[in-house]
Design a protein that fits this description.
20-stranded antiparallel sheet; disordered N terminus; single chain; 924 residues; 22% helix
C-alpha cells in the first residue's frame, strides 16, 4: 500500500472513531434530551389516550365548570380518577417555583391490566430536563414524610415509589423521568412498559392507522382523545356482566383507531373526529363505510318515553349483508350468522335476504321504550322502514303461510284486529319466526324476539307482546313522539342531518335496559344513587360515512332541570302549546266523555277520552269564555258554544259550524258569554257585554232577543253576566268598575243599589241565602271588603282581613257541612272563614297563584279546591292540606271529572310543556 493509501485509510479510521464516539456520547446521554413526541412513551396496548395542550386550563374547566363531570364523579371509579388527576395536577401547580414552566403537554393513557383491572399512566412534559430529586423533595414536603420515596433501577432508568404511613393519594404512586417527561402511575408495570418500549425505538408512532387519525386532530380544543379499537372492547367489557363480557371483548374487529376532539361546556362534553379502519375488509367499519348517510325519520313514530335506540341507515342492503358476512367470518361466527336464514329457507320456503331487499327502505332501528306499564322484556322494538305497507304486508304473510312441510297454511290465524282506543283499531300480526330481525339485519337485533308486528305509518314495527306493541301504537296516535320532545330537538340541532348510525341512551329511561348489559356492582351503584343521576340527560353517538373513515359525533349531555317520570294515564301532543283550560264535555251519541280545548294558534280540538285527537278546526280568535253545551234544536243533540272578542261561535260535535256562525258581534266583547235557561225548557238566552257599554241578549239561532231593553252601562263590564232566582223572582246582575246593575229578564232595573262599589276584574256576585226571604247579593270591593246588597238596595259591609287589589273572593261550602264559607285567594295565600268570621285555615303556597280557585265535589261529599301556579297545580282538602300526590306538573287551568266508569278514579286534565295535554288520575 502506498503512502497516499495509508493516509486515506488512517483518515477513514479517524472519521469512524470520531463518529462512533459522537454516537456513543449521544446514545449514553439520550435520556438527558427532551422528548420530541410523548406518544413514543405510551405503551402500545393503550385502550384510550387523552392528550391536552392546555393542562392548567382544561383540568379546572372540567372539574369546576362541567356539571356532567361533577355528576359522574359521584361514582367510585370516576371519583378515584378525578382524585388522581387533582393530586398530580396539584404537585406541579403548588410547586411551580421549584419546576421549569410546563411545556403544556400531558398524556393520560388507559390500559388493560391482567384479567379485569385497569391501569392509568400520566405523562407530563416539563419542557426541560430536571433532576428526579427535585420531584422527590416536593413529594416529601407535601407528605411531611422524609425518606418516603424509594428508588429502583429498570433498564438504566430509575423508578421512584412513594410509600407513606398515611392513606393518601400519594401512597403507592410511582414516577420516573425519561428526558424531560415525567411518567406517573399507580401501576408500576406501565412505567416498565414505557421504558422498555422507548429503548426499543418502536411505538404507536410506527402504526400507520394511528398516524392517519392523528392528522385529523384539531388544535384549538380542550383535548384530543384516541381510542385503540384493538384494546378498547376488552376495556369496555370490564363494566359488563358475564353474559355480554365475552361478546364485547371479542369485538376487536370493529375498526383500528379513532381520534376525537374534546370540547368542554358547562352542560356537555362534546367529542367529534374520525374513526379509521385498516385494510382488513373483515372489520365492522367496512360494513358502514360503504353506506350512504341518510336523514332518518323513525323519531316521528317513536314514543317520547324512548330510553335508547341504535339506528342504521342501510342504503345498500345487499352490500350490508355481504360485508356483515365477512365480519362474522373474521369473528369466527359465520355459521351462527347463516343459521337463522337457512332455517327460514327450510321451514318457510323463503330467502330472507331476497325478501328483506324487496321490502326494505334503508332504515332499521332497535329501540327500547321506558314503558312502566309493561314487562321489561317486552320493551324492546324493531322498526323497519318499508317501501310499501301493502307490499310488505303481502310478502310477510306469504312467507308465514308456508309450514315446514311446505303446505300452504291459512294466514288468518296470523292476523288479529286490536283496538288501540275506543274508536280506533288496526291489524296486528303474529310472527312465528323467533328473532326475525336478527336474521334480516344481524346480531345487533338479537335483543328483540319479534313475536308480533304491525304497521305504523311507513314502518313495520316488531314487538315482543301485543300489549307493549299496542302501547307503542297508542303513543303514536297521541303524537307523544320523540321527534316532538324539546330535548331531543335540541340534541338533533348539534348533529349532522344525515347519518349512517345513531346510538342514543337516555340514562333515566334506560335503567332496565342497561341492567341487561351492565355489571351488577354498576347497577347497584346506580340504584343506590338514583337521585344523584337525575340530571344526566342523554348520551348520543352519531357515525357518518366519509372518505373511507367514519366522522363521529359523541355527546354527553347534562340538564339543569330534573326530569321526573310522568304520573299520567296518558299524554297527548297538540300541534303547538296551549294555555286554555281543557273542558270535559258530553258525547250525546254514547254518553261518553270528550275533551275540548284551544291551542295558542287558535285551533279548537276535540279529543277522545283516550287522548286521541278526533278533529281540529281553526278559529278566528282566542276563546274568552267557558265552552258550554246546549241543545239548540231541542232534539237531544248537543252543540258547543263560546265567544271570542268579536264572534259568538257555535259548532256541532263533529266540528262543523252551525248556520249563521261564527256570528260577528256588534262590538268587541269585554266578557265571556253567560247562558241562562230560566225554566229549564231549553229556551236559552245568551248574554254578552261589549265595549260600546251595551249588554246584548241572543237566542241560540244567533238573533237578538226583541224583548231585551237594557240601556248602557257607565263603564265596561268585565265579568260574565249572572242570574239568580230568589223564590219565584229572577234577577240578572252585573257590574262595571263602580256601578252595580240588577235587572229583570227584559233588562229593566229591578233593584237600585244605594252605593257605588269599586271592584276589580275578578269580582263576582254570590247569593247569601242564610235568611229565608231576605236573600242578599254579595261581592267584594277592590280591597277585599265584603258588600252585601239587600233586595231593597241597601248595602251592609263586613271585613275579613286586609287583601290586595288583585284578590279573588268566592263563597262556597269548603268542608261539606252544608254551610257556605268565605274564601279569599290573594297572591300566594288562600284563607277560608266560616259564617261566624272564624278562620278555618290559611294555606300559603310557595309561589303566586294565577287565576280563580276551582271547587270540586267528590263522592261522599268530599270537597277539594284546585289552584294553578307557575308550572305546578295544587289540590287542597277541606282541612287546608295538600291532597296526596300534589303538587303536579301543570301549566293551565284544569278540569276534574270521570273519563271512564272506573270506581274511585277521577281524571284531572291540564296542560304541560311543549303542547302536551296531561291526564292524571286523582284518587279520593
Amino acid at each position: 500500500m502506498n503512502k497516499i493509501g495509508k493516509k486515506i485509510l488512517i483518515l477513514i479510521l479517524i472519521i469512524v472513531l470520531i463518529t462512533g464516539a459522537l454516537l456513543g456520547y449521544f446514545f449514553l446521554h439520550s435520556k438527558e434530551k427532551t422528548i420530541s413526541n410523548l406518544f413514543r412513551l405510551v405503551p402500545v396496548d393503550a385502550s384510550i389516550i387523552i392528550e391536552t395542550n392546555t393542562t392548567l386550563e382544561a383540568i379546572p374547566k372540567l372539574q369546576d365548570q362541567n356539571m356532567l363531570w361533577k355528576t359522574l364523579c359521584l361514582s367510585p371509579e370516576f371519583n378515584d380518577i378525578n382524585g388522581q388527576i387533582t393530586y398530580i395536577d396539584s404537585l406541579f401547580n403548588a410547586n411551580i417555583s421549584f419546576l421549569p414552566p410546563l411545556n403544556s403537554n400531558i398524556i393520560t393513557s388507559f390500559h388493560n391490566i391482567g384479567k379485569d383491572q385497569t391501569g392509568i399512566l400520566y405523562i407530563v412534559q416539563m419542557g426541560a430536563v430536571i433532576d428526579p430529586s427535585v420531584i422527590t423533595q416536593i413529594i416529601e414536603k407535601e407528605t411531611g414524610e422524609p425518606g418516603c420515596v424509594t428508588i429502583r433501577k429498570y433498564e438504566d432508568y430509575e423508578i421512584h415509589q412513594i410509600q407513606t404511613s398515611q392513606e393518601s393519594k400519594a401512597n403507592n404512586l410511582y414516577f420516573a423521568m425519561i428526558g424531560d417527561a415525567v411518567l406517573i402511575t399507580y401501576t408500576p408495570i406501565l412505567i416498565e412498559d414505557a421504558i422498555r418500549q422507548y429503548n426499543s425505538g418502536f411505538s404507536i408512532m410506527n402504526d400507520k392507522d394511528f398516524l392517519k387519525v392523528q392528522k385529523t386532530a384539531g388544535d384549538k380544543v380542550d383535548g384530543n382523545i384516541y381510542i385503540n379499537f384493538r384494546e378498547f372492547p376488552r376495556f369496555i367489557s370490564l363494566f359488563l356482566n358475564k353474559k355480554h363480557k365475552r361478546n364485547v371483548s371479542s369485538f376487536i374487529n370493529f375498526a383500528s383507531w379513532s381520534e376525537f376532539d374534546l370540547h368542554i361546556k358547562s352542560n356537555q362534553l362534546l367529542f367529534n373526529g374520525f374513526i379509521h379502519g385498516n385494510d382488513s375488509i373483515g372489520d365492522f367499519i367496512h360494513c358502514i363505510i360503504g353506506l350512504s348517510p341518510r336523514e332518518m325519520e323513525f323519531s316521528v313514530i317513536s314514543p317520547a318515553t324512548t330510553g335508547s335506540f341504535v339506528a342504521f341507515a342501510i342504503s345498500d342492503y345487499e352490500q350490508w349483508i355481504k360485508s356483515l358476512g365477512l365480519f362474522y367470518e373474521k369473528e369466527g361466527t359465520y355459521s351462527e350468522f347463516l343459521e337463522p336464514a337457512e332455517q327460514i329457507k327450510k321451514n318457510y320456503k323463503t330467502d330472507i335476504v331476497e325478501l328483506t331487499e324487496s321490502i326494505f327502505d334503508n332504515e332499521v332501528v332497535l329501540l327500547y321504550n321506558d314503558d312502566q306499564n309493561s314487562n321489561p322484556d317486552d320493551r324492546s322494538f324493531v322498526l323497519v322502514k318499508v317501501k310499501s305497507k301493502s307490499q310488505a304486508r303481502s310478502k310477510m304473510l306469504e312467507m308465514m303461510a308456508h309450514s315446514s312441510q311446505g303446505n300452504a297454511d291459512s294466514i288468518s290465524r296470523f292476523i288479529q284486529s286490536v283496538s288501540i282506543d275506543n274508536e280506533f283499531s288496526d291489524e296486528f300480526f303474529t310472527c312465528p319466526i323467533p328473532y326475525l330481525a336478527r336474521a334480516m339485519f344481524g346480531n345487533t337485533f338479537s335483543r328483540s324476539e319479534t313475536r308480533f308486528y304491525t304497521f305504523i305509518d311507513n314502518y313495520m314495527v316488531f314487538g315482543n307482546s301485543i300489549a307493549s306493541l299496542k302501547d307503542f301504537y297508542y303513543s303514536y296516535l297521541l303524537k307523544k313522539n320523540l321527534a316532538s320532545e324539546k330535548s331531543f330537538q335540541t340534541l338533533c340541532e348539534g348533529l349532522n342531518k344525515n347519518s349512517s348510525i345513531i346510538v342514543y341512551i337516555d340514562p333515566q329511561r334506560s335503567t332496565d335496559f342497561l341492567s341487561w348489559y351492565a355489571d351488577e356492582p354498576i347497577m347497584k351503584h346506580l340504584a343506590q344513587n338514583k337521585d344523584n343521576y337525575k340530571n344526566l340527560n342523554n348520551i348520543t353517538l352519531q357515525l357518518v360515512s366519509s372518505k373511507n373513515m367514519l366522522y363521529t359525533n359523541l355527546i354527553f349531555s347534562y340538564s339543569s332541570e330534573i326530569r321526573e317520570k310522568a304520573k299520567t294515564v296518558w299524554e297527548s301532543r297538540l300541534d303547538t302549546t296551549f294555555s286554555s283550560k281543557p273542558w270535559i264535555l258530553n258525547n250525546h251519541n254514547n254518553d261518553e266523555k270528550e275533551i275540548l280545548l284551544q291551542d295558542d294558534k287558535n285551533q279548537l280540538y276535540q279529543i277522545s277520552s283516550s287522548g286521541r285527537i278526533l278533529w281540529k278546526i281553526s278559529l278566528p280568535e282566542k276563546i274568552i269564555s267557558d265552552i258550554q253545551q246546549i241543545d239548540a234544536f231541542k232534539n237531544s243533540k248537543l252543540q258547543y258554544i263560546f265567544n271570542t272578542k268579536n264572534y259568538l261561535i257555535m259548532v256541532d260535535r263533529n266540528g262543523n259550524y252551525m248556520d249563521r256562525f261564527p256570528l260577528k258581534l256588534r262590538a268587541e266583547a269585554t266578557n265571556g258569554m253567560a247562558i241562562f235557561d230560566y225554566d229549564e225548557s231549553r229556551d236559552y238566552r245568551i248574554f254578552l257585554a261589549c265595549n260600546d257599554h251595551k249588554v246584548y241578549c241572543y237566542k241560540p239561532d244567533g238573533s237578538l232577543v226583541s224583548g231585551w231593553e237594557f240601556g248602557n252601562t257607565d263603564k265596561e263590564v268585565r265579568q260574565p253576566i249572572q242570574h239568580f232566582r230568589f223564590g219565584d223572582k229572577d234577577y240578572i246582575i252585573f257590574c262595571d268598575t263602580l256601578k252595580t246593575y240588577i235587572v229583570d229578564r227584559k233588562g229593566k232595573t229591578k233593584i237600585s243599589v244605594k252605593e257605588f262599589i269599586p271592584t276589580n276584574d275578578q269580582a263576582r256576585f254570590f247569593a247569601d241565602r242564610t235568611e229565608a226571604k231576605k236573600e242578599k247579593f254579595m261581592i267584594t270591593n277592590v280591597n277585599g271588603k265584603l258588600y252585601k246588597i239587600g233586595q231593597d238596595g241597601k248595602v251592609t259591609k263586613e271585613t275579613y282581613g286586609e287583601f290586595s287589589t288583585s284578590h279573588i273572593f268566592d263563597y262556597t261550602d269548603i268542608n261539606g257541612d252544608g254551610k257556605s264559607d268565605y274564601c279569599f285567594l290573594d297572591k300566594d295565600n288562600f284563607s277560608v272563614y266560616d259564617a261566624s268570621k272564624k278562620k278555618v285555615f290559611t294555606y300559603t303556597f310557595d309561589q303566586e297563584i294565577s287565576g280563580k280557585p276551582a271547587f270540586y265535589v267528590f263522592p261522599n261529599n268530599q270537597r277539594r279546591t284546585g289552584f294553578v301556579g307557575d308550572g305546578k297545580i295544587f289540590l287542597i282538602d277541606a282541612k287546608g292540606s295538600l291532597h296526596p300526590g300534589f303538587p303536579l306538573n301543570g301549566t293551565t287551568p284544569f278540569s276534574i271529572g270521570k273519563l271512564t266508569k272506573e270506581a274511585n278514579i277521577f281524571n284531572l286534565l291540564t296542560g304541560g310543556n311543549e303542547g302536551i295535554l296531561l291526564n292524571y288520575e286523582v284518587l279520593y
